[in-house]
Write a structure and sequence with these properties.
With about 130 residues, the chain is an alpha/beta fold. It has 5 helices and 5 strands, in the order βαβαβαβαβα.
Length: about 130
């Protein structure tokens, strides 16, 4: 499988070490710079200094979950248009529909399909090679 270097910075918002490791390894394989926040509040605190290409967030986290974080992001002019992708282990059609209806740009069930994940992110960013 050929790798395509992407000049991206992605902020992964996830409280589970295993998930952070899996998602980070997939992204780093494609030359993507990965930053990690452990909950929604940490993500919001980091955004002014990182300015990521997109945010990948778990939905269920302590302190501030992905749903609450998305509401905060969409309410601020400087982050309202940021691409925010949801990932969750608690997959169902309802959760997927709710995530898209809430304003997430895409939704992925865990485990992430490594082969198509970055291609699907690239389609969102508009950088398909």
């Amino acid at each position: 499988m050929a790798t395509h270097p992407y000049d991206w910075q992605i902020l992964v918002v996830e409280d589970q070490d295993d998930s952070v490791q899996v998602v980070s390894q997939i992204l780093e394989h494609y030359g993507i710079e990965v930053h990690v926040a452990r909950n929604g509040q940490e993500c919001l605190d980091m955004l002014p200094t990182i300015q990521p290409t997109l945010v990948i967030t778990d939905l269920a986290m302590p302190e501030m979950d992905g749903w609450q974080m998305l509401t905060q992001l969409r309410s601020q002019p400087e982050t309202a248009d940021l691409i925010v992708v949801a990932i969750t282990a608690y997959h169902s059609v309802n959760v997927a529909e709710d995530a898209l209806a809430a304003g997430f740009d895409a939704y992925f069930a865990k485990p992430i399909a490594a082969a198509s994940f970055v291609d699907e992110l690239a389609a969102l960013v508009g950088q398909l090679s």
